[in-house]
Structures are given as structure tokens and as C-alpha cells.
Amino acid sequence: MDLAKLLKVAGAAVERGRAVTQSRAVGELTFKGDRDMASEVDFAVEREVRAFLERETPEIGVLGEEEGGATDGTRWVLDPVDGTVNFIHGVPLWAISLGLIHEGRAVAGVIDHPALGTTYAAAEGLGATCNGKAIRGSRCTDLADALVAVGDYAVGPDAEAVNADRAALTQRLVPRVQRLRMIGTAATALTWTANGYFDALIMFSNKPWDTMAGVAICREAGVTVLDLDGTDHAPESRGVFAVADGIRKPLQELLG
After folding, report:
1. What's the count of helices (H) and strands (E) in the chain, helices before strands?
2. Where are the domains of the chain?
3. 34 annotated binding-site participant
4. Less packed terminus of the chain by CB within 10 Å, N or C?
5. Is pLDDT at 32 greater than 80 in this prediction?
6. 91-136 pLDDT, tens per residue?
7. Does the domain formed by 3-134 have CATH 1.10.510.10?
8. Strand pairing of 147-150 and 200-203?
9. Class of domain 143-253
10. Is 158 annotated as a binding-site member?
11. Can you give the pLDDT at residue 158?
12. β-strand partners of 98
């Protein structure tokens, strides 16, 4: 598999998606569940990127958040607008996230932030970049100095039960770390961990379109990425724990 070539394809695909976001208004919202929605832009970006990938790499399946697709084998995984709630409120923290899964592992990814002007990219063995410049994750060694990002709290019918563990973790983290941050987009949180802005990221969910591109970018930036149980992260993992090695042990103990 020529990952360098596929990374260029991914970059071109995301560029097409970015153009869509810059030429359309939010439009009508489609509600998918309790406080969970997609905008017209989500669907338009997904269709544009999917069509491009199907032309350029017909041998690779495509799984998109809004319209589904390939669920096994080598596949592209696309979140056309990660952080839709931020997007519809005018908050500039949202991203187009395109990852590549091969043999059960995230091997490449491109994450573009149209409102911020930053594009992160990586492929296994080729390093990680932001706007073409090499990036490296945090070298933090003291939990008291750590800026730690956490994923969103859940919404929906099971939210109270699901959020109990998240709230308990928050209570354990607050007295031990410098600060916590929740920014509303998994893709951005992963790229900011890869770039060393965050010293760790803990998410209690792992939808592949949200996470696979960012996982590949983090790993290539030298960040350890695990499941919440400490095993190596995989597409079927329960959550995401991306962390600087210097604070991995004490944070894992807090995860319980």
C-alpha cells in the first residue's frame, strides 16, 4: 500500500470538502436524536468527498458519518463536519476529518480546520505535519503541569448512566491536573494533542469517523494512543486515551 500516494489523495479530497464549507450556508438541520443534528453542509461535504474518493480509489471503501458505507476491510472513514454544534453556532472549532483504516489500524489521516486555516496530516512511517511543518506531541512529565482535554458528555436516552463515569473521572482529574478542557470536536482535540497543545486527551467514545484520522496523526507525532483499558487503540476500541508518555502512568491510574 502506497501511503504517501494515498495521503495526497486524502489531502485533495479534504480540499474539496473545504471548498464546500466555504460556499454554502448551514441550511436546514436534520435531527438524528436528542440534541444531535447534521446540517446541509455535513451532507454536502460528505457527498463531495465520497464521490472524489470513489473515483480516485475505487478499490477502497468509504464510511461516512451521515450516509454510512463500508464497515470492514481497508476503508476511508469520513466526518464531514466534526463539531457540528460548534459549526451551527458559529464557533470556529470544527473540522473535516478523513482517516484510512488498513488491517484493523488507523494508518493515515488528514484533518482540516477551514475556519482556523490549519490542516494536519500523517501517514504511518511518514511523520505528522501541520500546514506542512513537522509536529511533535507533548513531553510533559508532571501531571500537575498537564493540560488535559476530555470528550463531550453524552446526550440521549442513556445519557445519565453513560455520563456517570465521565463525571466521576472529572472529579478525580480536577485536583491532579493543571486544567481540563472540553472543546466539542474529537478531531480537533486529537490534532491539538498531536501538536502538543494538550498533554493528554481522554474520550469515552470511539466512532471511527471522529477518531481514526486523529489517532494516526497522534501516533506519528509521538503520542501514545490507547483504549481506555490500556490496550493498543483499534477501530473497535471503547474510547481513546492519547497521552504524553511522561504522564501516562498516573493518568491511567486515575482512569481506574
Report:
1. 7, 15
2. 3-134, 143-253
3. no
4. C
5. no
6. 999 999 999 999 999 999 999 999 999 999 999 999 999 999 999 9
7. no
8. parallel
9. alpha beta
10. no
11. 80
12. 78, 110
